[in-house]
Write a structure and sequence with these properties.
eleven-stranded mixed β-sheet; Rossmann fold; 24% strand; 37% helix; elongated; alpha+beta; single chain
């Protein structure tokens, strides 16, 4: 039993027109102790067709222009509604989609609040509540089983409440499921602004926090396996190597290291033979002398540095190198080299080199050999060595090379707030690749574990708009994340993106997201992207996006039968992300 509010007077395709009784315009009505919402835009009504209830959402309201005189002096108007079917109740269960349509003269009724709840929660009450429906003020239990088994996008302009939504979503998950997911899932947050390094989301002993800092020395460093560091893809990411020339060069460094790693003193012998080759080459190269000086600056003695400093290049023949003496030539047969430099080079020590210094040495050695043998153009590879040299000082502060796996907790927060812009581009790729590859290697088929990568302010690394990067590097950066978001589901890897500029993110990545929490967006490019990538966003919900209040969002996607407007509950002060606006009244008082 319910309150009858009108009847169907026209059906045009899936557009239904109803004539509504005048008393149904009240905001709230009560009947037999039950509370009902009156008829208005975005409210729900039920049209009875036989034993089924066809559920419709009200999209428009108007007064009919046809009017008539009553008692000769009073004008009345006929109130009409435009409604669209969204599903139907059959055998007590709600089914989404248009299967049945009403007929003329079918009666329309108001829906009870518990029926509205069933539409969105399918009658399930798992208690996974992050907010309530904006207009109906009903708490809705979200389908967490489907939600966290998908890629999620949380979008909204700054100050719209998206950080609170992200935090609320995972805070509720950890509060309710921490005991059952601890050994079965890992969660990693890439936190560009340091918003989740406090008591947010979950506390000890389930949370690890790494506060990476490229400006000062810090104990927090991201651990990489030695085998993972000495990897062509890893080093290409770290030093933005171009695909056609610099990446093959890195590959030669690594393959050479692997080939002779079990040979005693292999690196020392490599250094010694390279020094000899430079001063014994039939076609000497001036640039090779600078490369030897780079090597000596890392591991050489003062005597070796001073000797190389005093050697000069004078021409392109067999007597190209000359020492401080007038006739102290370094002949192509290597005789003078053996006399002057041979014993000094023998004093080089390589036992105490760390991985970073070893990389510098091996890169210079490889370029020296390739160059004097005519395998490469010096100007194509030399920029890579400059990047290696300049980047390693920052990398030493944020990366450590380890021999065995680091056992991260359930939640790992990696703060990049105190990293420079270069590291903010490079580290997320390195971290994402590390966890993705590690998870792929460990997981079974079908997956028995999941890994959830959460990227706050995702436009920082997934943007197509950056003009400061080489195109090939930008393509590589995007391809890595596109691979994760396209193929990750097969291995139980899921991504959650939060961004204030979704239009800046690669459209390929946005189109692969399954579920969305959309806060206020006003930029036309952002709204256009949503129109073209989210098939579940209806026109009525889309029209609300530019005018949503703080904390309001539209939840839509494959886990939701219908788009719904939520008011997300605000977290307690100690659980809120550190993203609050400055209180100028308090600050300036």
């Amino acid at each position: 039993m319910s309150i009858i509010v009108g009847e169907v007077i026209a059906i045009n395709g899936v557009k239904i027109t109803l004539k509504v009784f005048e008393e149904s315009s009240k905001d709230t009505l009560y009947y037999l102790g039950e509370k009902y919402k009156g008829v208005s835009i975005r409210e729900y009504i039920s049209i009875q067709r036989g034993f089924r209830d066809i559920i419709c959402i009200v999209e428009g309201e108007y007064l009919d222009e046809n009017k008539f005189e009553k008692d000769g002096n009073k004008t009345n108007y006929i109130r009409k509604l435009d409604a669209k079917p969204i599903g139907y109740f059959e055998h007590g269960a709600f089914n989404e989609g248009i299967k049945y349509l009403p007929m003329i003269k079918d009666s329309a009724f108001l829906l009870k609040e518990d029926k509205i709840s069933e539409i969105y929660s399918k009658g399930k009450n798992d208690g996974f509540v992050i907010g309530e429906m904006l207009k109906e003020e009903l708490p809705i239990s979200l389908p967490w089983q489907k939600l966290f088994n998908s890629h999620i996008g949380i979008f909204g302009n700054t100050g719209s409440g998206k950080s609170n939504t992200l935090a609320k979503l995972y805070t509720v998950l950890f509060e309710q499921k921490v005991d059952v997911i601890t050994d079965k899932s890992k969660f990693v947050i890439l936190d560009f602004n340091g918003e989740y390094t406090g008591e947010q989301l979950i506390g000890e002993p389930y949370k690890s926090t790494l506060k990476l800092n490229t400006y000062t020395a810090s104990e927090d460093k991201f651990p990489l396996y030695e085998a993972e560091f000495w990897n062509t893809e890893t080093l290409s990411i770290l030093f933005q190597a171009t695909a056609n020339t610099q990446r093959p060069f890195i590959n030669r460094i690594i393959s050479g290291r692997d080939r002779f790693r079990d040979v005693h003193n292999s690196l020392f012998n490599y250094i010694k033979s390279t020094f000899s080759a430079v001063f014994s080459a039939a076609s000497p190269k001036a640039e090779a002398l600078d490369l030897l000086r780079n090597i000596s600056s890392v591991l050489g003695t003062d005597e070796l540095k001073d000797t190389l400093k005093n050697i000069k290049w004078i021409g392109g023949n067999a007597h190209s190198f000359v020492g401080p003496g007038v006739n102290d030539y370094y002949n192509a047969d290597g005789v003078t080299y053996a006399r002057v430099l041979g014993d000094i080079v023998d004093q080089i020590q390589t036992n105490n080199l760390d991985n970073f210094d070893e990389l510098i040495v091996r890169a210079n050695l490889q370029l020296t050999r390739d160059f004097i043998n005519g395998y490469v153009q010096f100007e194509h590879i030399q920029p890579l060595l400059k990047r290696i040299d300049s980047s390693l000082s920052g990398l030493r502060k944020v990366i450590c090379i380890v021999e065995q796996a680091n056992n991260f907790n359930l939640l790992t927060v990696i703060s990049l707030r105190k990293c420079n812009q270069e590291m903010k581009k490079i580290l997320p790729l390195l971290i994402a690749k590390h966890f993705y590859q590690q998870h792929k290697n460990e997981v079974e088929n079908p997956p028995n574990k999941t890994m959830h990568l959460i990227i706050d302010e995702a436009h920082n690394i997934l943007s197509q708009q950056s003009s400061s990067e080489h195109e090939s590097w930008k393509d590589y950066r995007l391809e890595l994340f596109e691979e994760i978001i396209k193929e990750g589901r097969k291995f139980g890897v899921f991504i959650t993106l939060s961004s204030q500029r979704p239009a800046d993110i690669s459209s390929t990545i946005v189109s692969q997201l399954h579920n969305f929490f959309i806060h206020r967006l006003v930029n036309e490019r952002d709204l256009f992207l949503l129109d073209n990538t989210i098939s579940t966003l209806d026109a009525l919900s889309r029209s609300l996006i530019p005018n949503l209040s703080k904390g309001n969002c539209i939840a839509t996607g494959t886990s939701f039968d219908l788009p719904m407007v939520l008011q997300v509950h605000r977290l307690d002060k100690e659980k809120q992300p550190d993203s609050e606006d400055v209180d100028l009244e308090s600050l300036w008082t």
